[in-house]
Structure formats: structure tokens, C-alpha cells
Amino acid sequence: MRHSKASARRRLLRIAVPVATTIVLLATGLILAATATRPHNVVLRTYIEIYQQGKNGAWEKIDEVGPTSVNFSASLLELAMGRGVASDFVLETRSTKGRRYSARLTNPAALNHNPATGRAEVNLVFEVTYDGAKATVPALLTTESLGTPAGTRRGSRAKGILGGNPTTVTFVSANRFEPAGASVPLMLVCTEQYTLTPKGRG
Residues of 187-198 as b/e, b for ≥16 C-beta within 10 angstroms? Predict the structure, then answer.
């Protein structure tokens, strides 16, 4: 009799656990779907260290940009698809050495975000102009630790479901800048802090 009851409990658990997991996943999916289209005010604070590779292969810091801020509006879906961001997201400034620097998002972004852990990665393509030289720069941004010519840089994960509440997340990246005809490549070591606030809140 006891064996029968124990077997029944085990069968119930085998059924209950997948059902509970499915309910959680469905609820998360509904929340993500709701937040994906919600408009957000986005504040991007960016700091860029510019390194040049010498003849011996070592990287030397030659300039820096920022910290500087860019403000625009977008939903998470627009951010992920590049819609509304390609036109709004344009950074134009000068470096600490007075050189013109601009960056413009040219392609749809690919956002990979795990709401359970907060880990996120974003693939972007920028058109970057620095001191008169222009190049297309593919960039992989991460919230994790990253080895760069400037040493280890660390991002910070978002807490909770991205886009549901005011959220701050920091991405780091190291991206090669190689204009046509350039004699030596440059490396752009970027720290980018995004603060997303749902419109009507904060």
C-alpha cells in the first residue's frame, strides 16, 4: 500500500514539474512579448578608449572619446531590429585630442538576452569615422568580462526582465577599426551603459 502511494506521488511529480515549468515559460513569454513593444526612453553613456598596434604587436593608447551621452526612444523590439535606432542613434563628438569621432548604427542589431540570469550580448554594425578615416565596424557587446588591449573590462547584467522596469545594463566590447589604406589597425575599447526607462515611468 505504501509502495503504491509512493509510486502515485512520483507519477504526480513527474507530471506536475513539466506543467509548472511550462506555465512559468508561458508567463515569461507573455511578459517579454508585452515589454518588447513598450516604448522606452534610452540614455546611452559611452566611453571609448582608442588603441594603436605598434610594429612589435603591442597596443598603445593614443586617444579616448567621452564619456558622452546619447538620448533616443525605442522599444526593445526596435532595438533588436534596428528600427528607429539607425536614424536616431548617431554619436558625433570630439576626442580628448580634438579629433572628430562619429558612429552610426547601420544594420539591424541581434540581441541575445537571458532574463533568468541577466546575461546579454548584442551584435551591431557601425559606420565609424575617426579623424577623417571611415570604416565599417562589426561589434559584439557583452555584459560579461572581456579581455582587451586595455586589460579586462567588465560589463554589468540587467536585473529582472529587461524592459519591464527602469533598467541599467553595461556592455563592453573591443572592436577593430581598419579604414581602407590604413597602415596600422586601431582598436576601439568601448564601455557602454544603457539606461532604459519605460515611457510614463521614472
Answer: bbbbbbbbbbbb
| DSSP category for residue 164 | T
DSSP annotation of 159 reads P
The answer to whether the bond into 138 is cis (omega within 30° of 0) is: no
Q: Tens-digit pLDDT profile for the chain (202 aa)?
A: 545 544 544 443 333 333 332 222 233 333 334 455 667 777 888 999 999 988 888 899 999 998 988 787 766 665 555 444 444 567 889 999 999 999 888 876 777 777 778 788 888 888 999 999 999 999 889 999 999 988 899 999 876 555 567 788 899 999 999 888 777 889 999 998 888 788 775 5
Which residues have a Cβ under 8 Å from the Cβ of 20 and sit 6 or more positions away?
Answer: none
Q: Which residues contact 191 (CB under 8 A, 6 or more apart)?
A: 46, 47, 48, 153, 155, 170, 171, 172
- Is-contact 62 49, C-beta < 8 A? no
Instruction: Name the maximum alpha-carbon separation found in the chain.
Output: 84
